[in-house]
């Protein structure tokens, strides 16, 4: 081979690994790193969805159990009130104490500040709200991941085809993915697909 041919091959090799490919490689690396973080945050959000769904269901189950107990206490109080009054004063006092206890139990099930139905309903609604926010966060991170993955694919294709247009589209898709990932962290409810 002549020296001119070696020089020409060297120029072609240098052109194939020119600055455009370095930019594409750097873009791919950055998008892959952001994708890894986005996927990890999406998984955390998915776990939070499941945890809050379980907590909400458990709390609503406890609420239902309190409702049943309150209904039973009310029914027992009403039943005791419909019975004939006993002739014995001590038995009458026991019945009145029983009715008072049932009334107190029913009120306790409804309004206890720690475990009453009102408190349980507020907790369950809070868990449902947290579940919904986590679900929105997970969807936003998933959409961010899709944008980042498209950016990586387009940037990789730009290296293969030496197309600057594909590299630009890869950059745009990566930027969209990054913006969605930021929305996932800051305000997931703003961007809903």
Task: Please tell me about this protein's structure.
The chain has helices spanning 3-16, 19-82, 89-111, 117-161, 164-186. The chain starts with a helix and ends in a 7-residue tail after the last helix. The protein has 193 residues and is mainly alpha-helical. The longest helix is centred in the N-terminal third of the chain and has 64 residues, at 19-82. It has one domain. Helix content is 88%, strand content 0%.
Any descriptors?
5 helices; rod-shaped; 0% strand; 193 residues; mainly alpha
How would you summarize the topology of this molecule?
Layout: H1 3-16, H2 19-82, H3 89-111, H4 117-161, H5 164-186
Give a brief outline of the structure.
The protein has about 190 residues and is mainly alpha-helical. About 90% of the residues lie in helices and about 0% in strands. The longest helix has about 60 residues, at about 20-80.
Question: Proportion of β residues?
Answer: under 5%
Largest sheet: none
Number of strands: 0
End-to-end distance, in Å?
A: 60 Å
Shape label: rod-shaped
Low-confidence stretches: none
Number of domains: 1
* Content-based structural category: mainly alpha
């Amino acid at each position: 081979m002549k020296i001119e041919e070696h020089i020409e091959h060297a120029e072609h090799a240098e052109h194939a690994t020119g600055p455009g490919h370095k930019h594409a490689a750097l873009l791919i690396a950055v998008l892959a790193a952001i994708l890894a973080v986005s996927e990890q945050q999406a998984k955390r959000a998915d776990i939070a969805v499941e945890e809050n769904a379980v907590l909400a269901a458990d709390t609503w189950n406890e609420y239902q159990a309190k409702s049943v107990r309150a209904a039973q206490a009310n029914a027992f109080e009403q039943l005791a009130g419909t019975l004939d009054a006993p002739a014995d004063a001590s038995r009458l006092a026991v019945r009145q104490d029983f009715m008072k206890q049932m009334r107190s139990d029913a009120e306790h099930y409804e309004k206890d500040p720690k475990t009453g139905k009102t408190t349980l309903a507020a907790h369950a609604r809070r868990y449902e709200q947290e579940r919904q926010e986590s679900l929105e966060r997970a969807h936003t991170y998933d959409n961010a991941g899709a944008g980042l993955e498209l950016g990586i694919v387009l940037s990789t294709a730009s290296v293969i085809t030496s197309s600057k247009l594909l590299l630009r589209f890869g950059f745009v898709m990566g930027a969209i993915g990054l913006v969605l990932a930021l929305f996932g962290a800051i305000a997931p409810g703003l961007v809903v697909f």
